[in-house]
Specification:
Elements: H1 3-13, H2 32-38, E1 44-47, H3 70-81, H4 86-92, E2 97-104, E3 109-112, E4 127-129, H5 133-141, E5 145-147, H6 154-160, E6 165-168, E7 184-186, E8 195-201, H7 202-207, H8 210-246, E9 249-251, H9 255-278, H10 283-292
Parallel strand pairs: 4-5, 4-6, 7-9
Antiparallel strand pairs: 1-8, 2-8, 3-6, 3-7
Length: about 290
């Protein structure tokens, strides 16, 4: 719905002038930045959560309360990650990257392998999988212990008891059969989202003729709409299927606990900015740009 849509669009739009040779599942290597800088790949998918050490500002997308859907999040991400946006100017430009198209998941939920979260106190001490810096900050702020692991290891981590639950989204579950091991989730607590983007090196982008650049710009925008629309349509339906077919239990925190969450949410953003600024990163600019994006 994203990468394949983009590839097919650009191939057709350029009349076959551009062809793609696709390598799945990190067959060329798992360091996308190195793949682009070495020239081994012309275009690569970047997972901002897994590259939090080199793309710390990108974790702004994992801060909670900034958007209500994948398409809403994607529009905001595109604005700050494109040339002229605060994230591009303060992070991607310095890495020599030219984002081609962006993708964001729906807002994450708290989902559990065993037990249920019915009160704020139930989260205390729980080991929750968090994909990156922003998600880890959320886990710590609610009194849980963040455990960073890739999505493909979630199933085994739950089975072994390495984690109790995760900050995750329902559209990501079928790919790893996670509907088999997650049994409950909080329905009225929406968190941040995972973000990825497909990029070329700036040098590689500048070598492309204008008509190919235009096809990629158009293809990227259409691919984003294709993917975020699919995300938003399927997030609720997959959860409902888990409730119907697997007995997945959806709980809701009471109003007094939601009030606590609102205060925590503000503090998470403030703490994130403070950490970024202490590292010499322009966290304030990126957060304000993300908040004001339409």
């Amino acid at each position: 719905m994203g990468a394949r849509f983009f590839v097919d669009y650009v191939t057709e739009a350029t009349g076959g002038k551009v062809e793609f040779e696709i390598y799945h599942s990190a067959q060329l290597g798992d360091d996308s930045l190195a793949l682009l800088s070495s020239g081994l790949a012309d275009i690569a998918l970047m997972s901002t959560g897994y590259a939090a050490d080199r793309m710390p500002l990108s974790n702004v997308t994992e801060l909670p309360g900034m958007f209500d859907s994948a398409c809403d999040a994607n529009r905001k991400f595109r604005q700050i990650a494109s040339p002229g946006g605060a994230l591009y100017e303060n992070e991607y430009k310095g890495l020599g990257l030219h984002p081609v198209y962006m993708a964001m998941s729906p807002p994450a939920s708290i989902v559990m392998g065993k037990g249920k979260v019915e009160r704020w106190s139930d989260l205390q001490g729980m080991k929750l999988r968090a994909s990156g810096g922003g998600a880890s900050a959320i886990a710590r702020a609610i009194g849980s212990v963040p455990v960073q692991t890739v999505a493909s290891e979630l199933y085994d981590s739950l089975e072994r008891g390495t984690i109790d639950g995760a900050l995750y989204y329902f559209v990501g579950m079928p790919s790893f059969s996670l509907e088999e091991v997650f049994h409950s989730g909080v329905g009225n607590l929406k968190l941040g989202a995972s973000s990825v983007f497909t990029a070329m090196s700036e040098k590689g982008w500048n070598k492309l003729p204008p008509d190919v650049q235009q096809a990629m710009v158009e293809g990227g925008a259409k691919a984003e709409q294709s993917l975020c629309g699919w995300f938003d349509q399927n997030e609720a339906s997959i959860r409902d299927e888990m409730v119907r077919d697997r007995g997945f239990v959806v709980t809701e925190l009471p109003p007094e606990d939601l009030e606590k969450w609102q205060a925590v949410r503000v503090r998470i953003a403030e703490d994130w900015v403070k950490i970024m600024e202490q590292k010499g990163r322009k966290g304030t600019d990126v957060l304000n740009d993300f908040r004001s994006a339409e």
